[in-house]
Amino acid sequence: MHAAEIRARFLDFFASKGHTVVRSSPLIPGNDPTLLFTNAGMVQFKDVFTGRDARPYTRAVSVQRCVRAGGKHNDLENVGYTARHHTFFEMLGNFSFGDYFKREAIHYAWELLTDVYRLPPEKLWVTVYHEDDEAYAIWQQQIGVPATRIVRIGDHKGARYSSDNFWQMAETGPCGPCSEIFYDHGPHVPGGPPGSPDADGDRYIEIWNLVFMQYNRSADGALTPLPKPCVDTGMGLERIAAVLQHVQSSYDIDLFQALIRAATRATGMTAAPPRKPLEHFSVRLPLARARRQYGDRCGRSRSPSRSDGGDPAAIPNTQNGEATQGKPMKNALETALKVIADHIRACAFLITDGVIPSNEGRGYVLRRIIRRAIRHGYQLGCKTPFFHALVVDLAREMGSAYPELAAAQRRTTDILHQEEARFFETIASGMAMLEAELSSIAPRVHARSDMVSPLLSGELAFKLHDTYGFPLDLTADICRARGVGVHEAAFNAAMARQKERARSAGKFNPEQGKIEYRGGKTAFTGYESLRADASKIVALYAEGEAVERLYAGQRGVVVLDTTPFYAESGGQVGDQGMLSARDARFAVTGTFKIQANAAGHHGTLEYGELSVGDAVRAEVEQARRARTMRNHSATHLMHHALREVLGAHVQQKGSRVDADKTRFDFSHSAPLNRAQIQRVEALVNAEILRNAPTKARTMPYDEAIRSGAVALFGEKYGDSVRVLDIGFSRELCGGTHVARTGDIGLFRIVSESGVAAGIRRIEAVTGEAALRHVQMLETQLLAAAGALKTMPEALCARIEQLQQQLKTLEKERTQWQAAQAARQRDALAAQVVEIGGVQVLAAQVDNADARALRAAVDALKDQLKHAVVVLASVHDGKVNLIGGVTSPCNQTIHAGELVNFVAQRIGGKGGGRADLAQAGGTQPAQLSSALHTVKAWVENQLNLTERYSPAK
Ligand code: SER
């Protein structure tokens, strides 16, 4: 039965049972940040299960395209190594939203498998969640599956709901116990029944999962019951097709035939195009032909000793990661072709659904899958892009089931080609480096007897990642085939270091440096106008590489023949805005010089396509540009004002002007005082009020300098320069400026600080930002006055008055504390006893921490002269103990020994000097009796043993 028929029968069967046929949703889940890709049929119904969304039906059936790569369900690592794992697959599923539950779900599944697909019942096994007696009983009593073929599956390590038979889409979302149906491929295939130690083999294959959705898992891990119990089932089309087509591997089904054949062709493993129509083409044929071809190529033209990684003979059998004897070449080839055939499906569908290869998120998963496919092709000898050529075969194979795939064919091919071209530039060097390292590690593998796999250095893995574009999992995959692991912790550390370097490098734009533009100059029209209606695209770049076309979703750089966009320079930021064509829109997030006279518009193509040669309308975001211009013109006025207020030594040392503010660094040795700041503000604002028109002229440099224009020291100028007259300032400047000084509105300095020896920095704002700043200060002033119940004008006097009150209170408090301490000391002094001429005090004090205790001990030592003092306090169930002995008594009585003696009686220990020591204890209840022993201990020390003997 062909895959197309399996799909159709599935949909028909459930439609006949009252299910609404629902189309596959895209691979990017709508509005679901918890999920990388659609990984099951239930994803588009997630909100229906939880009750947040309602549909006009309560029963649905679908064939859903799914990707399981990255995220909670990730099969990427297994692809090519098992008979049943895929990154992309189709899931047949039926769903009940609070309609039927376990009984019908199980009956429907059984009826479809045995009556419609006509599978022999004795080949089917089932599992249930170990607590699910209800499902067990339905299988055994209603369906009649013998108990020997029903397996209860428990939880992992006893954690409830951690079982393989408890399904959840992601860390959060709908979930529930499930019951799975397995097909026994027969004793000739290795593997054991579900739940047995050999369950991972390929003999018993799970074909259908019936999930009894009952709970919603929230971010804190709590499970709450769904409003109504639901059903979500999923059957992998490729697996059921393998069963129904009597093949053991899902790579041998009809759907994969053409793809494996196409991969064989595209990698040059066979020159012959398929001669037979698909229906008559044996599933084994492409591989068999490729093997013949492959053997020839290796024998004829390749030296097995080559170590550039391009030699297929060098690839060992990668099954289970072990190099095995037998037919390594055959296995490596099979693996490579399977991986390529699998990956073209995932990649083409992801691109169709709007994912673009990139360095983060979904785009990075896509990039990793593409690079894996390329690496396998490379190891089969491909040295130029081949992978994109499979899109046409895929579209032929699956385009009728998924018309969107066929519609996007050209775009998908192009994007894959761009990505391939990029990786092929570096893969050879990267593989050579990795190969060299692996061959030095490999001999050690065999020399070792303890079987601990050796590790590739994390630094090397990072270098491969950073310089040659090898994602970590690609490197790990290549190493795995050699029984070598990767030192991931060191890789991550190197990655973190690089991120830190990039962060501290600040605003460096990584895309900027890479572009190699050799075209003509960009004509800049942005002094006069913010819009150009027909600019021509002269070059396009995606991730630094020249491309002919950009597609929706792609980030890139557009170069135009004419642009009103100002490219960042002279401290002024580049413009933002929009480039639009009839059916395309490119959002410009920044404009940078890619060469002295050429501007690159950086941004993202929001929709449509743009090709080199297209005409676009270029529109600068007006409000942002206007704010930037105000700040820039104000900077010129401020520069002049600073020279007037501080002196002609003031020179510009750096500036950054954007839409929010101007930041101006200049030479001056001392902080500006308030009066100077206000004077600068007044001068600038006076020029603004004068509202003089700005004049820009181009003239020879020498003439400009003679006319008094300020040039920046160390800056390179051409022979002919642009001279800007703005109010009282005259400077050489290429930036964009207001038409009249009055356009600036209002100028305010918001901060003044030092950045280096002799360099000060002023930050200032203009226009609405200046107004906002003034209003913010006023709001705070009013709030402060309100809090102190006075008017803003009286605020300072009120604060002074309060400070005075505070001072008085502080003084009174100190006096009161001193009196209190004296009272406490007197109370303690009353407890002093005299022993042999020494004043002894052992007492408990309330509310004192170790510092207060120590101060009290010191004070008592001063007061009592010949004294032994032990003070204790209890805080949070712990005892603090400080002991002090005056000199010369401390020659006979050691404070450290004393506190240690006491501490031992309260579950602690301590020690210290002869005059002062500290200890702690944990048994406050014993404190009182412990303190009582002090007297006797002192007596003992003083040798008054006739009244005290430790033996008594
Ligand atoms: N959601 C379940 C699975 O993916 C059943 O569809 O296995």
UniProtKB/TrEMBL annotation:
Annotated positions binding Zn(2+): 632, 636, 733, 737
GO biological process: alanyl-tRNA aminoacylation; negative regulation of DNA-templated transcription
KW Transferase (keyword) present: no
Coiled-coil stretches noted in the UniProt entry, renumbered to this chain: 792-819
Assigned EC number: 6.1.1.7
Subcellular localization: Cytoplasm
SUPFAM superfamilies: Class II aaRS and biotin synthetases, Putative anticodon-binding domain of alanyl-tRNA synthetase (AlaRS), ThrRS/AlaRS common domain, Translation proteins
InterPro entries assigned: aa-tRNA-synth_II/BPL/LPL, Ala-tRNA-lgiase_IIc, Ala-tRNA-ligase_IIc_anticod-bd, Ala-tRNA-synth_IIc_core, Ala-tRNA-synth_IIc_N, Ala-tRNA_ligase, Ala_tRNA_ligase_euk/bac, DHHA1_dom
Cofactor binding description: Binds 1 zinc ion per subunit.
A Gene Ontology term for the protein's cellular component: cytosol
Residue ranges, compositional bias (Low complexity): 301-312
Known catalytic reactions: tRNA(Ala) + L-alanine + ATP = L-alanyl-tRNA(Ala) + AMP + diphosphate
Ranges of residues in domain Alanyl-transfer RNA synthetases family profile: 1-776
Pfam families: DHHA1, tRNA-synt_2c, tRNA_SAD
Keyword line: Aminoacyl-tRNA synthetase, ATP-binding, Coiled coil, Cytoplasm, Ligase, Metal-binding, Nucleotide-binding, Protein biosynthesis, RNA-binding, tRNA-binding, Zinc
Spans annotated as Disordered: 293-328
Cofactor(s) required for function per UniProt: Zn(2+)
Keyword Nucleotide-binding set for record: yes
GO molecular-function terms, A-Z: alanine-tRNA ligase activity; aminoacyl-tRNA deacylase activity; ATP binding; tRNA binding; zinc ion binding
Family as reported in the entry's similarity comment: Belongs to the class-II aminoacyl-tRNA synthetase family.
Comment, domains: Consists of three domains; the N-terminal catalytic domain, the editing domain and the C-terminal C-Ala domain. The editing domain removes incorrectly charged amino acids, while the C-Ala domain, along with tRNA(Ala), serves as a bridge to cooperatively bring together the editing and aminoacylation centers thus stimulating deacylation of misacylated tRNAs.
HAMAP family per UniProt: Ala_tRNA_synth_B
The protein's role, per its UniProt record: Catalyzes the attachment of alanine to tRNA(Ala) in a two-step reaction: alanine is first activated by ATP to form Ala-AMP and then transferred to the acceptor end of tRNA(Ala). Also edits incorrectly charged Ser-tRNA(Ala) and Gly-tRNA(Ala) via its editing domain.
Protein's name according to its UniProt entry: Alanine--tRNA ligase
